[in-house]
Amino acid sequence: MRINRRLYNKAAYLAVGALVAFVSSQVVGERASRSPVIEGQASVIDGDTLDIQGTRIRLHGIDAPESGQQCYRDSEAWRCGKAAAFALDQYLDGRHLQCWHKGKSYDRIVAVCQVLESGEDVAYWLALNGWAVAAPMYSQRYLPAEAKAKSENAGIWDSKFVVPWIWRKQQKRAASRVHYFPADLGLSTTKERSM
Q1: Which of 3, 36, 148, 194 could form a disulfide with 98 if both were Cys (CB 3.0 to 4.6 A apart)?
Q2: pTM to 2 decimal places
Q3: What is the dihedral of CA 83, 87, 89, 92, to 10 degrees?
Q4: What is the rounded distance in angstroms from the CA atom of residue 100 to the CA atom of residue 118?
Q5: pLDDT tens by residue, 129-165
Q6: Hey, which residues does 134 pair with through a beta bridge?
Q7: Which pLDDT score, from 0 to 100, does residue 18 have?
Q8: What does the pLDDT look like over 66-87, one tens digit per residue?
Q9: β pairing state of 55-59 and 108-115
Q10: Contacts of 166 (CB under 8 A, 6+ apart)
C-alpha cells in the first residue's frame, strides 16, 4: 500500500498546527486566568458566597454551612450557617478583594478570592478557622487548612454537623416528600364546595 506523500505531509502539518494552537490557547488561557475577574469590596451573602459590585461569587474549593443549617454542641443546636457568614463578614470588614474566575454555578461565578492588601486566600481563611469544609471533589487545595481546624476544634469542628453538600441533599429530599392537600392550604375541597 502506497501512501500519498502530499496527503501525508498535509495531514502532518495540520496535526502540528492543531497542537500548536491548542498549547497556545492553554498558555493564553492560563495568563488570562491570572488577571482578576472582579475587584472590590465584598458583601457577605452566606458563608461561602459574596457579592462584589452586583456580581455573586461562590468561593471555589470549600463549602460552608448553609444559613439555615444547624450544628450540635452537647445536644444543643446552634446556627452554625449564620455563624459562618458572620465570621466571614467580620474577617472581611470592608477590605477589598481580587477574585479569579474558576467556573460557574447556577447564577454565580465560582472564583478564588484573596484580600488585596494581604494576599490571603478567603476560602483558605474560612477552612483554617473552621467555618467551611474543604470540597475535595472540586479542589484538594484546602484539605490541609481543614485538617488544622479539625485538630484544633475550630469553628464548626467543635460540633457535630452534616457536611453542607449532604445537608442540602437531605433538605431537597425532605421537601420533595411534603404533600399538601387543599384543606391544609385553607382551600375548600370539592365535597365542601358542593354543600
Answers
A1: 36
A2: 0.72
A3: -170
A4: 16
A5: 999 999 999 999 999 999 999 999 999 999 999 999 8
A6: 62
A7: 44
A8: 999 999 999 899 999 999 999 9
A9: parallel
A10: none
Per-residue pLDDT, 172: 83
Rounded CA separation 169/179 (Å): 18
- Nearest CA to 68 among 179, 169, 187, 168? 168
Mean pLDDT, the chain, as a whole number?
81
Q: How many CA atoms lie within 13 A of 34 on its CB side?
A: 5
Set of cell numbers at residue 122: 478567603
State residue 6's pLDDT score. 60
> What is the Cα–Cα distance from 185 to 178, expressed in whole angstroms?
13
Q: How far apart are CA 58 and CA 104, in angstroms?
A: 8
Say which amino acid occupies 113. C
Instruction: Decide if pLDDT at 96 tops 50.
Output: yes
| Locus of grid cell 482578576 | 36
* C-alpha cell, 131: 467555618
Q: Which long-range contacts (CB under 8 A, 24 or more apart) does 132-140 make?
A: 132/47, 132/48, 132/59, 132/62, 132/63, 132/64, 132/65, 132/84, 133/62, 133/63, 133/64, 133/163, 133/164, 134/61, 134/62, 135/61, 135/62, 135/63, 135/165, 138/60, 138/61, 139/60, 139/61
What's the one-letter identity of residue 88? L
Q: Are 96 and 102 in contact (CB under 8 A)?
A: no
